[in-house]
Write a structure and sequence with these properties.
102 residues, 67% helix, 0% strand, elongated
Length: 102
């Protein structure tokens, strides 16, 4: 019979492994909060969220598998491609939408 405490200690990653995910999550949350400020700020919010997802792609690309934490869902190439497409799309949307004061 396997000792449960030793299994928990080996299966649980370091707390530092979730930091990249939390930073991306915070950036996307900030983008959503900005976008909720009204249709005038939707472009800025989309740009902030898109930039955060592009940073997620960069983090997934440069971090080793064991440090990718919750950013790693599939293979590295698929994760990076998904973050690039979603982040690039949101960033492009943010650049196309009219900015306040223009």
């Amino acid at each position: 019979m396997q000792n449960r405490s030793s299994h928990r200690a080996t299966s649980r990653g370091s707390v530092i492994d979730v930091v990249p995910y939390l930073l991306v999550l915070a950036g996307v949350a900030v983008g959503l909060v900005v976008a909720v400020g009204g249709s005038r700020y939707a472009g800025r919010g989309a740009a902030v969220a898109g930039g955060s997802l592009l940073l997620a792609a960069l983090a997934r690309l440069v971090l080793p598998q064991r440090r990718s934490g919750l950013l790693a869902a599939r293979s590295k190439s698929l994760d990076v491609l998904a973050f690039l497409l979603l982040g690039g799309g949101l960033l492009a949307l943010g650049l196309v939408l009219p900015q306040p004061g223009h």
